[in-house]
Amino acid sequence: MRGAAALPARRGPSAPPAMFAELNELLGASPERPDAGKFTLLRDSRTDGSFLVHHFLSFYLRAGCKVCFVALLQSFSHYSIVAQKLGVSLAAAKERGQLVFLEGLQSCLDLLFGEKEQPGQPSPLQFLSGSSCELRALFDFVRASLSAAGGDSWKGPVLLVDDLSVLLSLGATPVAVLDFIHYCRVWVCCQLKGNIVVLVHSNEDSEDEENELVVNSLCHHSDLILWAEGLATGFCKDVHGQIKIIKRLSLRQAAEQDLVQVYQYKIQDRNVTFFARGLSAAVL
Fold first, then answer.
1. Which uninterrupted H or E stretch holds 56?
2. DSSP class of 236
3. Is 234 exposed, middle or buried (0-12, 13-18, 19+ CB in 10 A)?
4. CB-CB contact of 36 with 193 (8 Å)
5. SS3 167
6. Where does the pLDDT of residue 89 fall: very low under 50, low under 70, confident under 90, or very high at 90 and above?
7. CA 122 to CA 116: how far, in whole Å?
8. How confident is the model at residue 116 (pLDDT cuts 50, 70, 90)?
9. What is the dihedral sign for C-alpha 218, 220, 222, 226?
10. What is the mean pLDDT of the chain?
11. What is the pTM (predicted TM-score) of this model?
12. Can you tell me the distance from the alpha carbon of 52 to that of 3, in angstroms, rounded to the nearest whole number?
């Protein structure tokens, strides 16, 4: 697994491991006091930003939050195996009701090739059947998954999506995807005072205009953007990429400018190190 770290398999805050401590310090985040009502966009270009997904998944589980994980890119076994190597049991989190996991790949197979859905129990990815291009069923799944959070002892609800670009590849329209995110933001961030973290792939040179439309629209509505980029110079064994941290101060305070920080990073077996540009081991 790229870019994750060992962490305990029990509920509640604990001492964060090395990777999370360093990234949390850059973000000003703490599992003891997770932010509320924030929309975070994870954007990657010419590189794999999945290590950020694993960071936030582990961060919010460790913080004691209720997490709805819409996994459209990988299977549950993939995330579970990776998490197990890092000391986290996603199966245990599911059993205690802290984690609600939508396995998008299996849902697609069941919808397209499996038995007919039960009456009153539509598939979250019902739009694949061609009956409607809306993502209402997916939003209903998210709302049902997080609605009970207020009656539990969890600190707050969290929606995590990996990755949103897959919905476009499956045939959803940009308007439907943006509407889905809008309603999720109103429900999770505004009404429940929870958090949303979404990963999207991006390539400014791509001819995929629909994907870039969604990415650019989400950038304008995000509180925090973590943009992982591949190196323009190509592969380097000591520097795996560059991350741009954009704190959208202008979103809440019109007089403020966005705060932008740029670091380079190296992904190790169970850790990610961050450093200023030009200060990698290859240079020093």
1. helix 50-62
2. -
3. exposed
4. yes
5. helix
6. confident
7. 10
8. low
9. positive
10. 83
11. 0.86
12. 8
